[in-house]
Amino acid sequence: MGGQPSFDVGDCNMIEIGIVGGTGYTGAELLRLLARHPEADLRFITSRSEAGVRACDLFPNLRGITDLAFSVPDPKVLADCDLVFFATPNGTAMQMVPDLLAAGVKVIDLAADFRLADAAAWERWYGMPHACPDLLASAVYGLPELHRERIKRARLVANPGCYPTAVSLGLLPLIEAGLVASERLIADAKSGVSGAGRKASVNALMGEVGESFKAYAIPGHRHLPEIEQVLGSIAQRPVGLTFVPHLLPMIRGIEATLYATLLDAGTGEDLQQLFEGRYSGEDFVDILPPGSHPETRSVRGVNTCRIAVHQPGGKDVVVVSSVIDNLVKGAAGQAVQNMNIMFGLAESLALDAVALLP
Amino acid sequence: MGGQPSFDVGDCNMIEIGIVGGTGYTGAELLRLLARHPEADLRFITSRSEAGVRACDLFPNLRGITDLAFSVPDPKVLADCDLVFFATPNGTAMQMVPDLLAAGVKVIDLAADFRLADAAAWERWYGMPHACPDLLASAVYGLPELHRERIKRARLVANPGCYPTAVSLGLLPLIEAGLVASERLIADAKSGVSGAGRKASVNALMGEVGESFKAYAIPGHRHLPEIEQVLGSIAQRPVGLTFVPHLLPMIRGIEATLYATLLDAGTGEDLQQLFEGRYSGEDFVDILPPGSHPETRSVRGVNTCRIAVHQPGGKDVVVVSSVIDNLVKGAAGQAVQNMNIMFGLAESLALDAVALLP
Amino acid sequence: MGGQPSFDVGDCNMIEIGIVGGTGYTGAELLRLLARHPEADLRFITSRSEAGVRACDLFPNLRGITDLAFSVPDPKVLADCDLVFFATPNGTAMQMVPDLLAAGVKVIDLAADFRLADAAAWERWYGMPHACPDLLASAVYGLPELHRERIKRARLVANPGCYPTAVSLGLLPLIEAGLVASERLIADAKSGVSGAGRKASVNALMGEVGESFKAYAIPGHRHLPEIEQVLGSIAQRPVGLTFVPHLLPMIRGIEATLYATLLDAGTGEDLQQLFEGRYSGEDFVDILPPGSHPETRSVRGVNTCRIAVHQPGGKDVVVVSSVIDNLVKGAAGQAVQNMNIMFGLAESLALDAVALLP
Amino acid sequence: MGGQPSFDVGDCNMIEIGIVGGTGYTGAELLRLLARHPEADLRFITSRSEAGVRACDLFPNLRGITDLAFSVPDPKVLADCDLVFFATPNGTAMQMVPDLLAAGVKVIDLAADFRLADAAAWERWYGMPHACPDLLASAVYGLPELHRERIKRARLVANPGCYPTAVSLGLLPLIEAGLVASERLIADAKSGVSGAGRKASVNALMGEVGESFKAYAIPGHRHLPEIEQVLGSIAQRPVGLTFVPHLLPMIRGIEATLYATLLDAGTGEDLQQLFEGRYSGEDFVDILPPGSHPETRSVRGVNTCRIAVHQPGGKDVVVVSSVIDNLVKGAAGQAVQNMNIMFGLAESLALDAVALLP
């Protein structure tokens, strides 16, 4: 193929970026998005296990796009970056983030290390001690539609989980407006298998998960406390959520069907206006017309969350359907959105692709 | 291939059977199941559009199994059967059933014509006048786990819808025991695309529904009044259900995740015992051990409903996950189960296959 | 969503474009690609059946991207365009193209009307008389890697079929170099279901084509004479091809495995160099390293053709595996590539996305 | 669920059976088939890694069918069986088979240990020394349609590979009749992912293989020498085959499209008669009518191989399309067929299910 690698090298005005842990789907998606970002100068991508391997040999869609090879993470090189993304398993970022912050590097963690403000809760749900609980208070939960101003000033952003993004955006207007019983929320969420990551496992073999469907983690999923924290901060008191995730026989996409009880059964039109008003001006939230049902394919590969709100039979139960691409708005896309905000760029820079349909 | 067609012809002790409307997936599945039924003498299968075509030319899995060709329905021939299955679009069976019953033929309708006891409700949801509302009272709703004794004596069985089967079996023990707030039930159900039938349509093209997921019919689905009727008859008062169906990018299988509020939050073990006790002795309902999550593939091709019951966090919300194969327990398999009951045969006759996994 | 529709309106320096027949997958893909084309001013998209409907109501990925609605084709409006794409069924473009060319409009036909130079052959394979056989000689077959110079000057481009693109690019270097027995070629090709289009049909239902695989059209497929024409023009004598297409249980992607007999068994390295040399400088053909196997997902959504060449066991059979996205390099992407060439733009303009993987 | 486990225990006339290595898809499929075999008394199923785990906890389709738990293989217990199936990785069976044969136990190996008659070739392709090369001569290659009489008398059957079954059955009549150039055969084969087994691996994750398609092992696949051996034994001289396997984004099914050059181009009707004649009387080979294209779904879950033969354009290339379920006729089903033959039972015993379609 003709042409040059797309990542510019050495332009001193660009943002110098490192990615720690780039062999998973989230890392691959960051590479895909940053490859077309006009202000991103991707300096390195690390992986201990794949050090020396070119990213495009692991992810053939990157052939002709970048010649970067994975490297062993080097603290000195990391410290020279303007921004480091962590696309690592839970528990890795917290080992390296204190030094990076001390060196003046900004950090966006796509794992869960800094999502929960309560260190004890984090340790209970994630099964390990937290390496830097003192940083939790200064980490900003990177949901731009809720915390844009804080993200602008943040040095450490905890990029939200995929389910929490879809669920929170769908319930946020109702909770903010105080319209529903916040102690009795239900989120029935379904995710494509890319959410399980790219690691050797029997449970995610196509022979195991193709042509089948199931709920999982009904007794409790790590995204439950995260969602309850987000919604609780909006409600300004603890909320009660029943959260059931399910595994879809497809690769990308999350749909969350949300059920809430209206305190005072209003009209469907009011809810529609509520949602449209709340998200007017937001580039990445699209409220569908009344009577709609969003499809996950309508957001395949893009950073948009599409939402429909219903009030079936005019009764007191409001039903919201919210869809995202779990790897984009649910991970790498939202991370780039946060980066754009943190560095004063147009929020949609490099995030203006059209979803791939069919 | 060697061997003889599997359908016996002319054995005077066998049940003489006709299928009206056999070109859809439900008809194909009836053919598959009856082909191995030792007491079934399938005499004919009708289709106006495909008259003269052999069933095995439409459904190549039937090659070597049956040489039957579709024929135009003939009232005289129908009247000579012991049993007629209707696998027709809604509104067809009701035109022919009165004459068949008058001729002494037993009928199992796999469509919706006789599912709702209230003719006015039927006409509202199905958008046409009912041709024989006087028969509705004598039709038996064919959910054997609820109405086995009535089915034994029935001459006209309304075979339940697919969603209603999965949802009703999952909620039945809770409603019967009076443990949950029956005015505030939620059923979040997901179905494979075979539930949409086998007719030319853009909406069910693989290009439209593959690798995507969505809710549909949130404002109201025809199975809502059917489920409310079943559950209401158990509760002996009207129930309130929010029912949201979804379309899965796969072919066979329904999973329903059911949410109910305990009137008095009990223990998980009690619920487990309740479900196991309710369905002990049932051949086609399998209560999984505590902490389980049933997969739709575990019932692929078989008449079993597998159910798990949870009480997340020990709170007052009970979560039930219920799976069936929509074409078997949700349609043709349950119809054969009803036939076995109506004719005094072993209930599991011809229904003892092992699910195809993977 | 914030922001303005992406299609610029009324910039007098931009290329004014119309799309005739925009309700299929090819039309949708043209919309997706042109939406991000900086020189394209899409004026209208026609559909008789969907006139008045907004494109984004049919294709929800276009919400927030374009507000264009389908319109009834109007010859006068068409005649004001710089360029008209036909994304219509076979036999439609040939009715309208003569008038458009007379009005000075350039045309790219994504259907088959102008692909075969021999009108009699066209009529035999397509089963209808040709409306303007006199135009066939001046139509340029739009495979840029073969006919770039002619495309630059073309007023009417016949955009290649999907299979012919994958097969021709894979065999071209071997035929050009005269290395293989051109009377004994085999192309075993496999396509995702989007190749069958977006029209109501039982045969493309997910229930019919999901989780299954088959060959089709073994006795003869319309793309056979097209491929034989392309390869014959390279070989400068008739070639003999056995072409067997197959239907894949997925949406996008074509893989063609090609078998040819070397006239004089050379070494694998020579073939690798031959392919790399032939396509050096080509933006949209990527020759993989020796020993590779291209995956269709590596080109999902992009205009690239990836090719690997093998000589198993060092014997005299050369095996080529060639993959494209049937809707991009096999249809709309190649059409945009041809447009860029015809209008003197950078050939990769609006075609530089990164493939969506996973 | 009611009822008793289906496996009879202790009936002294039944065949006492052990399965070594039952945690893969082949082992699971053997369990599924033997569960309904009236003459099979399954005594144990071994797995070192899963010892103590019930099979139905790994494969939930077996709930209510068998309560057998995996056990550590015990030579003494093995030696008491009438028949032992090996569903182990390559290289395991050859360690245990000599002792079993010495103890009078019959063996069917579903792995590759005894498929190649040439120990040196085996060691080259499988990368390890053979533990009992002296047994290779007495092992019978278990393709019943070719070796039925030898299988009847066999004590050790090498169950054929999945690709070799589909390819050999498709080419066998042409080779036997000496109609085609046997030094120039091509097999373009495609398999569902269950062929890759059920072991933790990145390469078979749904995120890696879903919605994508590729060729693999073009330089050489272990099934190549196996097929060449089978066809060579028919041709009574070495054959030349180009064999290219591909990975399908689905679970079950193999389709092989086979290309051969007629030595003397005959008529299509003759080839049809040739195939029908060769397989008349065979329960598990179905020759489709002229002009047909077999679908893998038509054999899902059953032991049938469906074949269509074509002569496109009446030229000298014959094209055969052959489909099987790789886990049934390509593995466990053929093994049960071989067992039935070895023990003098009806060949189709427990193999008479109807394929699951859709």
Secondary structure elements and their pairing?
Four copies of one chain form a homotetramer.
Chain A (H helix, E strand, L loop, with lengths): L14 E6 L4 H10 L5 E7 L8 H4 L11 E2 L3 H5 L3 E4 L6 H10 L3 E4 L9 H8 L13 E2 L2 H10 L2 E3 L3 H15 L8 E7 L14 H4 L4 E2 L7 H13 L5 E7 L6 E8 L6 H12 L5 E3 L17 E6 L6 E8 L3 H15 L16
Parallel strand pairs in A: 1-2, 1-4, 2-3, 4-5, 5-7, 6-7, 8-10, 12-13
Antiparallel strand pairs in A: 8-11, 9-10, 11-14, 13-14
Helix pairs in contact in A: 1-11, 6-11, 7-9
Overall description:
The structure is a homotetramer of 358-residue chains. Chain A is an alpha/beta fold and 358 residues long. Chain A contains 11 helices and 14 strands. The first copy, chain A, folds into 2 domains: 15-138, Rossmann fold (3-Layer(aba) Sandwich), CATH 3.40.50.720; 163-326, Dihydrodipicolinate Reductase, domain 2, CATH 3.30.360. In chain A, helix 6 (144-153) links the parallel strand 6 (140-141) and strand 7 (156-158). Chains in contact: A-B, A-C, A-D, B-C, B-D, C-D. At the A-C interface, helix 1 of A face helix 1 of C.
Strand content of chain A: 15-25%
Sum up the overall morphology of chain A in one term: globular
Taking the alpha carbons of the first and last residues of chain A, their distance comes to 27 Å
Largest interface: A-C, 49 and 50 residues
Q: What oligomeric state do the depicted chains represent?
A: homotetramer
Tell me the major beta sheet of chain A.
7 strands, parallel
Counting DSSP H or I runs of 4 or more residues, the number of helices of chain A is 11
The side-by-side strand order for the widest beta sheet of chain A comes to 3-2-1-4-5-7-6
Q: How many strand segments of chain A?
A: 14
| Mean pLDDT level of chain A | 95
Helix content of chain A: 25-40%
CATH top level of the largest domain in chain A is Alpha Beta
